[in-house]
Request: fold
Amino acid sequence: MTSIDTPGVAASDGSPRLVRDVVCGFCGLGCDDLEIEVSGRAVRARGTVCPEAAKLFLRRGEEPDRSASRAGEACSQDDAASAARDILAAARSPLIAGLGADIDGGRAIVDLAATFGGVLDHSASVGLFRNFAATQRTGWLASTLAEVRNRCDVLLVVGDDPTSAFGRLFERLYPADPLFAKSRRVIFLGAAPGERALKQLDGVAVSHLPASDPVAALEALNGLVAGRRITGETIGGVPLPALADTAAALQGAAYAVATWNAAEFAEGDLVAERVTALIDALNVTTRAGVFPLGGRDNIIGINQLLLWRLGYPLRTAIRGGVSAHDPDLFAAANAVKDADVLVWVSAFRPEPPPASLVEDFAGKIIVLGHPDTPFDRDPDVFIPVGTPGIDHAGTVFRMDSIVSLPLGALRVATLPGVAEAVRRIAGAVA
Amino acid sequence: MRLRLKGGRVLDPANGENGVASGATRDIEVEDGRIVAASDARADEEIDLGGDVVMAGGIDLHSHIAGGKMNLARLLMQEDRRAYPELTGAFCGCGGGRAVPTAHATGCRYAELGYTTVFEPAMLGANARGAHLEMADIPNLDTGAYLVLGNDDYILRLLAAGAGQEQINAYVGWMIEATQAFAVKIVNPGGINAFKFNARWMNLDEANPHYEVTPRKVLTTLIRAVTELGVPHPIHLHGCNLGVPGNEETTLATIRAAEGRRLHLTHLQFHSYGTEGDRKFSSAAARIAELVNASPNISVDVGQVMFGQTVTASADYMSQYRNRGLASPKKSIGMDIELDAACGVVPFEYRDKSFVNALQWAIGLELFLLVEDPWRIFLTTDHPNGGPFTTYPHLIRLLMDRDFRNAQLATLNKAAQAHTMLGEIRREYSLEEIAILTRAAPARILGLKDKGHLGAGGVGDVVVYREDADREAMFSKARYVFKNGRMIVKDGEIVDLARGTTHVLRPAYDRSSIEGDMQRWFDDAIGLKANHFRIADGELRGGAGPTILTCEGEGL
Reply:
């Protein structure tokens, strides 16, 4: 086996090669130390890798690429692009959703929306907008990965064990030798940490408060930090003494951090708001930050792009050369009710448009997707696209919205990337 | 492609030409994007200027136009975007906003004023890739960015360990190259870092609670580093104690701390406050201007406050956290970032009836009028922190028209009027001085030899203004703007979009001494590979890459 460090450089003799320091763009955590074995068209992760990355990097390389299609009938990429263009040209109100694309793909999508009009929303935006409900009202005080990694001495994890969605989170947050944290404690407020989390938290003091109602428990923590008298034996399922101990630990911390994944709670906006208030209160006397989890399929990058291009986050409509933003009206689940065409983009994973979007949808559907995307009902146009970080180089943002990472290409692309496929659709428009 | 602009009054202070004073007119020719000597050759396009004033494209050396903090500001201040929707017309269907305009609107509004080059003055290394992605989407402007250093744990760790200057220089060189930066900015030297250790204040000689390094040490070490690396622009300093009454002493001490080496003090207005009077807030502009006048190594930009709603965005989380109680509307964002720096975003409304805001306005103008050398002072509002850049024409009129200025002053908070000497200052800027402040001087201090002037070999960024006694009207809408010889503005309206370039600096530095240590630092502390932190040339400007200025330091 050849071993090289530079992604995108093929071994000349065609033998399997090991590519080191591969960047993973799937969950938003931004691991960039993966080892990937590439052999011809086959791609496989080796060594330290989370289950999701192992699954999403895997390419057996045996079958030919799936062809583009119209209503399930194979056609050329050009014919598919032309059919998509005809559909969009006749559309009154397109919804462009999914948006699983790298930054350059996102740029092409925004241009497409500017040309044909359309509502823009990402498949993972539910959690993001629960957080924005808090951010846009009061703002918040936040932290990023390297700060948590080195400074955080007390971490409050609200909700479920995040390891299932962010497989290496605690490994990334808890290196063997942090620069500043003198002690390390993690308090799970919600579900108990699983085995994988505990393994990554080796050497860290872990406690678990089995909150059945995290919002109520957070309210009590806010009260305790504010010095209010709280009564009751348990609050939100947590014994009051345990909450008091947690409040004291947070106040006594040199750098406290609270983390949660708003996508997992129906009341995620309330969790975000209560955590924001808690961190705000802690900063009066010590230092603290929120560290919200999320960031799947470059949602943060696409959101950033929209902010600088359109001045609005996701859930924005472009019509007649003017953008408008409405976090409810232009959420895909609502916008689909007024849409006559759905364009679904999902380059990172074989994910068809969700049933909730398409089951009652009578309009035309165009999918730019992973070649393995399964469909219950064939879309009107399907354009298979390559995966950023496997077939194409590109840029994705990490969940903290500050750091962005360069994805490399691991093999020669046989499919267009999202940017190319979208520009091909828009191409012939005068 | 040859463009001939016929019969303009050329105002080109860099080359000592003042057609406005002499009344002489001449032709300007641009061939394939560059200014050439006037000729008889057939031109592809010829425009009769009829004696209009011709200047080089404007250069703003300090305006926050890209990077994560601007996107946080956009997210927080959707009100700003809603209040300023897209302009009609084929070229402005993509964005709006005033305090934090979109990339597209930034490029268009600047071009209408006659600016063709703008520098983002606070790019964090951790966010550099994002800032470059955003700059690539700004039309009509060339851009560049100053890298924020001096609060990063890497350099503070080196200083605490007593590292030699050579090691610091290698680090600075590595970082400038890796982040595709053009110069080095220090924001509240060491203070942002100290806030992470819960310090709430930081004076010039106060030790960092963890590293025991002082802001003075950070400042003097980095001044030496850019000097020895040969970085054309001096250290671009946002000093300690921004916005704090009495910070005049810190500012004066900071100027002296440079010990004769070149140093640029940015948004000086926010650092020129005394504590005299009933309200313990007063102007220190005269004292500070006096020392600036006596210190030829010092340059400044003002950061003028302009009344109205804006949003302040700064890497100085320590100061922004302190000021967040003043937020209007009441919301703000703060963020500690990547062992690197931080940011704070606080919406703000400067009110003419507020004593403090009115005095801030007056202090800024006092500085403009009391600093004597127009080559060492630059026209900025620290966009958007003191006010949006679209207020520049109004600011120019304030500088050029004493009656207008005093009439404005008379409408402000009465107590503030009593606390400023502004009404007694007779100075009025000339057009030539405005051309120096906004063109010739920024090009010179940035080391951009082919910009800011209209001599042969210069970049074909040419602006034509129709002279108007109302200087605000004159500078609000350029008659023509040419970017690399291509018309992008006519009669104050955008008529075309040009793709700009990004200026980056490539210093020579000792790679061998630093590369291995940077890789270890990123692996162990940051949790990111140094190779992924580093930005490739092809990542800039949609694959077009940067415009590179190389520099050779001393002893390399």
